[in-house]
Amino acid sequence: MIKAEPDDGLSYPLLIVDLKRIEENARAVAELCASHGIELTGVVKGASGLPEVAKAMARGGCARLGSSRLKQLKGLREAGIGLPLLLLRTPGPSEVKDALAYADLSLQSELSTLRLMADAATASWAARGKRHG
Q: What is the pTM of this model?
């Protein structure tokens, strides 16, 4: 169990997370997905990107972790989460470099953003196996 409290000094809201249940639920869904040849992506946005929740999802069998918030992906990267990280939205033009730095994959819907990402990408990113498209 973990408690996540706001960092603004207020006592509410308070989020209490049962990490064992997160892991068990992730395992049940991952096993069902695997039986159909599907890999599971655990979405951490609803849990505020808490590394403890991400680790429970990883233990449960998630193949990757995703969020629509770059700040959460950055936090997971800095926490040493070893799974690939997925940005669940197209980054804005000002977010392209951060998307390439913190996400291993991203979902894209704008050709202009893909061009910006291609321009910003380097051989070192390609060598790390990142895909954005």
A: 0.81
